[in-house]
């Protein structure tokens, strides 16, 4: 993905809430002069302070303690199904996150028959698409039935849809973790002045020297090169576009990891996002996980979950990438087994 770097001169900063943003590209302009690297995907004019705007929006937290035990056991497999359906229907990742939030909140507030969890999951996916997708991408009930293989009639989907909408009091506006992630990416979380703990140049030099050593059998030259490598001081370098792409990719994967984990559903999304930024920057090898220019933007927000997220990642086992297997074991219904051959063909 092409990076938005040095294409905008940031000549027209505008203030919002004592913070400055570029009027043309929307990048946050910290007082220390750091310049953020930004993808053209997140290019937008700066008219507001997005962080303050997100914090002021209504956020419906999910009371984890109220989630039924049956649902908690099936939740991971349900998300796997919803990810598969979302991919087949061509929906965005924003619709997936919104649908899972709908399902989590509804099940925590309303008693649902465990055998119908997937019916409600598919309906939540349709409602999420209706909320944020373009009209041509919205999967209506006929298409939803065809892609999900669920043995329910159209009237069942309609009843389910009405129940969810009434429970939400007809308010389907919800700020998800991926919304926060895209917002902070648009403001910039990687800077040109960022430094790595060890430069790519030094690593390339070491690789080149190893190849040369393999081709040259002169023991004296080999010892000299090894000594030179060991005594070369580690230096820092300015950030590259490849690092930015890596940070962006890791950020999205970490958001999916937390979505599947389910233990952060009732946490403050601003604190969770800042914690994710620190984890991602550290994983990608940046010298300072949370530099002052980032803390300046997220004032009065603390990265309370950075250590717990890092601990989760260190203990994380490989998540199932397909619904085949674990999903069938956990579900209480049997109609997926009847469609097993159709799902894998």
UniProtKB/TrEMBL annotation:
GO terms for molecular function: protein kinase regulator activity. Residues 80-166 form the Cyclin-like domain. Residues 203-230 form a coiled coil. The keyword Ribonucleoprotein does not apply. SMART domains: CYCLIN. GO terms for biological process: cell division; regulation of cell cycle. Transmembrane segments: none annotated. The keyword Coiled coil applies. It holds the Pfam family Cyclin_N. Keywords: Cell cycle, Cell division, Coiled coil, Cyclin. Belongs to the cyclin family. PANTHER family: CYCLINS (PTHR10177). This is Cyclin-like domain-containing protein.
């Amino acid at each position: 993905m092409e990076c938005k770097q040095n294409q905008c001169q940031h000549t027209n900063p505008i203030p919002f809430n004592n913070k400055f943003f570029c009027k043309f590209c929307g990048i946050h302009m910290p007082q220390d002069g750091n310049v953020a690297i930004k993808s053209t995907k997140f290019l937008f004019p700066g008219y507001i302070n997005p962080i303050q705007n997100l914090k002021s929006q209504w956020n419906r937290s999910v009371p984890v303690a109220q989630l039924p035990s049956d649902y908690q056991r099936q939740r991971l497999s349900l998300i796997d199904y919803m990810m598969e359906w979302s991919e087949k229907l061509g929906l965005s990742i924003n619709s997936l996150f919104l649908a899972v939030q709908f399902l989590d909140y509804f099940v925590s507030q309303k008693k649902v028959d465990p055998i119908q969890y997937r019916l409600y999951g598919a309906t939540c996916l349709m409602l999420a698409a209706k909320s944020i997708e373009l009209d041509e991408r919205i999967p209506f009930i006929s298409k939803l039935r065809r892609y999900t293989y669920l043995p329910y009639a159209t009237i069942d989907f309609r009843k389910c849809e009405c129940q969810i909408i009434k429970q939400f009091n007809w308010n389907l506006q919800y700020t998800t973790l991926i919304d926060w992630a895209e917002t902070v990416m648009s403001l910039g979380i990687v800077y040109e002045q960022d430094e790595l703990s060890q430069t790519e140049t030094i690593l390339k030099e070491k690789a080149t020297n190893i190849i040369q050593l393999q081709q040259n059998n002169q023991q004296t030259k080999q010892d000299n090169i090894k000594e030179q490598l060991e005594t070369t001081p580690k230096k820092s370098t300015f950030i590259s576009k490849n690092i930015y792409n890596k940070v962006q990719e890791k950020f999205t994967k970490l958001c999916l990891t937390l979505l599947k984990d389910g233990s952060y559903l009732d946490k403050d999304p601003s604190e969770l996002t800042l914690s994710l930024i620190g984890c991602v920057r550290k994983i990608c090898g940046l010298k300072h996980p949370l530099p002052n220019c980032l803390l300046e933007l997220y004032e009065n927000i603390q990265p309370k979950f950075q250590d717990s997220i890092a601990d989760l990642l260190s203990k994380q086992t490989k998540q199932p990438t397909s619904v085949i297997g674990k999903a069938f074991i956990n579900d209480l219904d049997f109609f997926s087994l009847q469609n097993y051959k159709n799902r894998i063909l």
